[in-house]
Amino acid sequence: MLKQVAVVHVSTGGYEGILAGWSCRVTRAADKLVTANLTQKFCFVAHSQPVTTVCSVGANLVSGSSDEQLKVYDTVLLREAGTLTGHDGTINDISFYKDTHFVSCADDATLRIWALEECEILKAMPGHSGPVTGVAVHPSGRLALSTGHDRTLRTWDLMKGKSVHVLKRKAGTTFVRWSPSGDSFAVADLYGGVAVFSTQTGKEVCRFKFEGRITAMQFVGEKAIAIAGHQPTVRIFCTSTGACTGMIQAHAERVRDMAVVQPFDDLSLVVTVDSTGNVKMWEVPEGCLVGRAEDADGDGSDAAVMDESSVLATAHVESRLTCVTATRADLVFPTVLPDTEDTAAPGKKRRRAAQDTKAPKHSSDANGSDDGNGGSASDGDGDGIGDGSSGEVESKRPTSRKSARPKQRTAAAAQPKRADTNKQRGGKSVGKPKKQRKAP
Predict the structure, then answer these.
(1) What average pLDDT does this structure show over 298-303?
(2) Sheet containing 51-57: order of strands
(3) Which of 6, 161, 165, 411 sits in a 20 to 30 Å window from 430, CA-based?
(4) What are 83's strand-pairing partners?
(5) What distance in Å separates the CA atoms of residue 3 and residue 31, rounded to the nearest whole number?
(6) Residue 345 — pLDDT band, cuts 50, 70, 90?
(7) HSE of 51, CA atoms in CB hemisphere, 13 A
(8) Where are the alpha helices (DSSP H) in 87-160?
(9) What's phi and psi for 404, nearest 5 deg?
């Protein structure tokens, strides 16, 4: 096994309206020893009030605040891409669909669908009767779940932009999260109760209790959930048995928020923050991701314990941190660029076939589409978030300027040719007639 290297972006929000970010280089050696180091990239005041939620995918970072604004940033180019307004209340949660859309929820009892690249709202979705505390978009982009203080769990059809199912709860719910595959989801209430449901049947699979109020909940793979709350320990539970399989003794004070990221397909890292400005990264052992029958009571007596000696990387920022997000830099949505030159042998250039290099006179088909499928960017096939009638927004493959532009005639070529006045007619030169002088 060769050495593996991945880059992870970690971003945090603070009570002072500060956003701070780090680039983390994660290395796994041939003996599976994992090392990581956090290098700070930015730290600035982004909001006028506390940052309440952050969410990232690839180089895109979106932050929400009590100032009722959403801000979009490019963490690679280190620039602000846009400011989004529309919510009338504190923004509580954000959930991405790939790197094209995201959904936000707030105290104004609404959810809103946004287009990331255009930085514009696509749909406002009212339905809750109180503040919406959590939102999660299904990996397919067709559905979303939301929780709120009105003691309901709502299912949303993102294609139509409306609520399609309401599940009454006994207590107000704070968090909802999908598993990576979308085959199950978990709901947390105000008093530490967590319930896991099957997506296919809609029935409850298991239930367990976390002591204290929950401040963060994230899936770690398909079979485990990491939960943080008003205590310094993060606990990992099995989603099928409810057993506690791992404990991270993360901080001296309560864990304010937590994020989970996978730099490699078989490696999960947990990032935790506290209100004193400390950021810590932990490796989750494989044994924590599978429930243990002997610990079915969930008391954690046989759970793997990770203390300060198990931390991979640490960082500190002068801010009272409130939220954190982490994402892999080389995400699964690469930009496909056209070939710019041939891969021929040195000194020789391979000649392409004429049909490969010759551009058509008209790049669009009979339907007016510029792509080869004869459809628009939103093809309405029912896949992905839409504006009520369209499907997933897909990025078009860029083409070279020469091939994308139809051949145009020059101004000289477009004008009709004038007859040559010096052309010979019948052996005589025909030119402009001379002006006759008048006789005196």
Answers:
(1) 61
(2) 51-57, 60-65, 69-74, 79-85
(3) 411
(4) 71
(5) 9
(6) very low
(7) 32
(8) none
(9) -80, -20
DSSP letters, 146-189, are: EEETTSEEEEEETTTTEEEEEEE-SS-EEEEEE-TTSSEEEEEE
Give the residue-averaged pLDDT of 182-197.
92
Number of H helices, E strands in the chain: 3, 31
Amino acid in the structure at residue 380: G
Query: Of 242, 280, 256, 199, which is closest to residue 10 (Cα–Cα)?
Result: 280
Q: What are phi and psi of 198, to 5 degrees?
A: -85, 130
Residues, the chain, total?
440
Cα atoms found within 13 Å of the Cα of residue 440, Cβ hemisphere only: 0
Q: Which helix (H) or strand (E) holds 59?
A: none
- The Cα–Cα gap between 29 and 151 comes to 48
Work out whether strand 244-249 and strand 304-306 pair parallel, antiparallel, or are unpaired. Answer: parallel
Measured CA to CA, the distance from residue 420 to residue 144 in angstroms comes to 74
Identity of residue 235: R
Residue 223: count other Cβ atoms within 10 Å of its Cβ. 18
Checking if the pLDDT of 244 tops 50, the result is: yes
CA 134 to chain centre: 16
**3-class DSSP state of 310:** helix
Q: Is 358 left (phi over 0), alpha (psi -120 to 50) or beta?
A: beta
pLDDT in tens, 251-280: 998 999 999 999 988 899 999 999 999 999
Residue 237: closest CA among 219, 224, 247, 248: 224
pLDDT tens track for 2-58: 788 999 999 999 999 999 999 999 999 888 889 999 999 999 999 999 999 999 998
pLDDT at position 172 over 70:
yes
**404 Cβ contact partners less than 8 Å away, ≥ 6 residues apart:** 359, 363
Distance between CA atoms of residues 33 and 27, nearest Å:
8
Residue 201 is given by DSSP the state T
Counting residues of the chain whose pLDDT is more than 70, the rounded percentage is 72
Helix (H, G, I), strand (E, B) or coil at 289: helix
Q: pLDDT per residue over 405-417, tens digit each?
A: 333 433 344 344 4
**Among all chains, which residue has been given the structure tokens 């490699």?**
264
Q: How confident is the model at residue 344 (pLDDT cuts 50, 70, 90)?
A: very low
